[in-house]
Amino acid sequence: MNRFVERVEPYFLSKNPFVQRYAIEMLEDTYLVDGDTFLTGLKAFDRGPVSEFSSPVLPYLIYMPLNEDGMIEVINRLDRLGKKDNDRLFYTQLLLNADTNLLIAQKNEVKRFVDESQLKEIVKLPSLTIDELYMELAGVTNYLDVHEYSQAHYDHGKRINRELIKKGGIESWEVRNGLKENDEENKFYGFHGIYIVYMAGEIREKSVVPRLVNLFKDEDESDLLFEEVANTLVKIGTEQVVHEVEKVALYGNTYFYTLDVLGRIKTKEAENALLRLFDQTADITAKTLISDYLCQQLSTDAIPKIEVFIEEGYDAGMLCLEESLYVNCIMNGIDHPKLPQWRSFIEDVEHQSMKEQPLLVPQPVQNRDKVGRNDPCPCGSGKKYKKCCL
User: What are the phi and psi torsion angles at 376 (to 5°)?
Assistant: First the structure.
């Protein structure tokens, strides 16, 4: 288990609702967790809310991979749930996110819960040749280019890419040339180009890091491309990635993505880059995001800086920085004199939030016609749509 995960995972079971919530968020999309972390998350969910301020745990587990034990557990839970149970949608999505080999091994059980035609398309992939897989991928890419965006189709394209990698159908030179040709021939990246970016992350192709980072300078590109570039850079996660991203981290409006990369790479190099950026920028929103990402790094060096920043005034419409700093101190074992004050403030914010909107039970949204990827998720979780039901 990764050392950072080893440090954070026990807090999934914290009796402090703010620590529990923040701990699970800290590992989201870091590509560091394994199936055992998912099982720990289920324990946290099974225990139930630890206070009135507890957040739903299950939605945060969607990003975690399943191992064989996790797969069996999800199937068993689906067996016990009624057809209208809200949690059923989450467990079903967990199955659809599972590795192809796991789905094949449990095919007879899984087919009771997911669309049969969708499952059939998945389980046939390992039997296809490389050429046949490329034909399948071309079909998905064409569908996405012509029709309205479909998350199910997009995810299936990723699954095809992973199968191509298993069969040796994607080599480093193909990724390098694919990115180069896309840059030279097209102003905008279509789905073919976005999948090449995804491939680069799956094979950890370090040579394309400068080219990928340079994409952040084109603010006219799609959110989907920026998200996939960010994900790929986090997967590669080297010092080179940190150094290249730091150079463009405060560029235009794409700093939402570049800072996210540095926040998700859990290394000392990334922490130091964020500390330098904190000192460099005067943008309140950027500084607020950097502060939160430093807390997600469990940076002790950042604590005095962020404390001063809170007093001076931060972008409270973006997040509650008192909560970030409070949890950072708790998880570092720092008995800061302001802990009671911050805890009281966080509780006041939570109480106000409860008064302003009804308590909604998050559940995957089936229709995204009028929901932007960066809009608040209509399920009521408080997360961005792209980080929740999408």
Answer: -60, 140
Compute the distance between CA of residue 217 and CA of residue 253 in angstroms, rounded to an integer.
9
pTM confidence score? 0.91
> Cβ contacts of residue 346 below 8 Å, gap of 6+?
18, 53, 320, 322, 323, 326
The pLDDT tens digits along the chain (390 residues) read 799 999 999 999 999 999 999 999 999 999 999 999 999 999 999 999 999 999 999 999 999 999 999 999 999 999 999 877 889 999 999 999 999 999 999 999 999 999 999 999 999 999 999 999 999 999 999 999 999 899 999 999 999 999 999 999 999 999 999 998 887 766 678 999 999 999 999 999 999 999 999 999 988 888 999 999 999 999 999 999 999 999 999 988 899 999 999 999 999 999 999 999 999 999 999 999 999 999 999 999 999 999 999 999 999 999 999 999 999 999 999 999 999 999 999 999 998 887 775 545 555 554 444 444 444 465 544 445 544 554
Please state the φ and ψ torsions of residue 68, each to the nearest 5 degrees: -60, -45
Pick from 224, 249, 202, 44: nearest CA to 150: 224
How far is CA 199 from each of CA 131, 137, 195, 342, rounded to the nearest angstrom?
17, 12, 6, 43
Sequence-ordered list of residues with C-beta below 8 angstroms from that of 259, at least 6 positions apart, any chain: 249, 274, 277, 286, 289, 290, 293
Q: Which two tokens stand for residue 212?
A: 């990928």
Q: Is the separation of the CB atoms in 356 and 346 below 8 Å?
A: no
- 222 is written with which tokens? 């799609």
Cβ-based neighbour number of residue 151 at 10 Å = 12
